[in-house]
Fold this protein.
Amino acid sequence: MTPTPPLSSPQSSPRTPRPSLSRIRIGSAPDSWGVWFPDDPRQVPWERFLDEVARAGYAWIELGPYGYLPTDPARLTEETARRGLRVSAGTVFTSLHHGPAVWDRTWAHVADNAALAQAMGAEHLVVIPSFWRDDRTGAVLEDRVLTPGQWRDLTALTERLGREVRDRYGLRIVVHPHADTHLDSEENVARFLDATDPDVVALCLDTGHYAYCGGDSVKLIETYGERIGYLHLKQVDPEVLARVVADEVPFGPAVAQGVMCEPPAGVPALEPVLAAAQALGVELFAIVEQDMYPCPPDKPYPIAERTRRFLRSCGA
């Protein structure tokens, strides 16, 4: 079923500072600098990303695709520390709905990321399901609807992953619903949460991806608050979203068309999302991500600086 664009309208910039969001820790990620791959000539060098993310006013970062930043913990610690940066999480892609046959390959990938995240003092590992269609070419890789057996494999192996990552590396996995994956809509996210153990599986709510797939972030936080372990802050342009949904544009080309936009121009409004997250009464990372691969090298920094200023005006 094709996702329905959210009906809410873009927010306006706040005129007065909001109450402090004392439990929300703001950061950014290589994604906001157009980084999707470990090595790509269209991406900014990692040194420039670190310089600019610190200059834009962020204290926390994610590792991004494994191999983009230095993977030697000593070197990465030196590079981040001298810029006043700390690491909140690593990120992995998995295809656990394919069952036990993919476990060993998955774990090898996860272990490298988790070990680096642990060495950098992070507490989380963001887990993103694999795409059902290629995010660059749009080629259909598999059926977009999981079978009951695939759902069982997805939930059971995600629980196993959560336990293994916790027991071996002391990290909490936070599973990231994402456009063009099997974990996308309100229905699928609810089904996943209802079928997994809250002690070992939490959610990374990406506000942009959830809106892209028709979801309401505030409603999700209010309904499944105890499962929200991490936030990605992102907005979609509702006009571009309506067009890409109607034309069934794959996610990668949709990003190139500007479906993800600079706050506060898009949806969902971030102030109510942050207020709902603050009301949970727990410490949460809220990492800014504005998908814009590929992009000119001089584009990310001004957006990152304006976004940080906007979030401060929201109290974060």
User: Anything to note?
Assistant: The longest helix spans residues 148-169. The two ends are 36 Å apart (CA to CA). Residues 24-313 form a domain with the TIM Barrel fold (CATH 3.20.20.150). The CA atoms of residues 5 and 281 lie 30 Å apart.
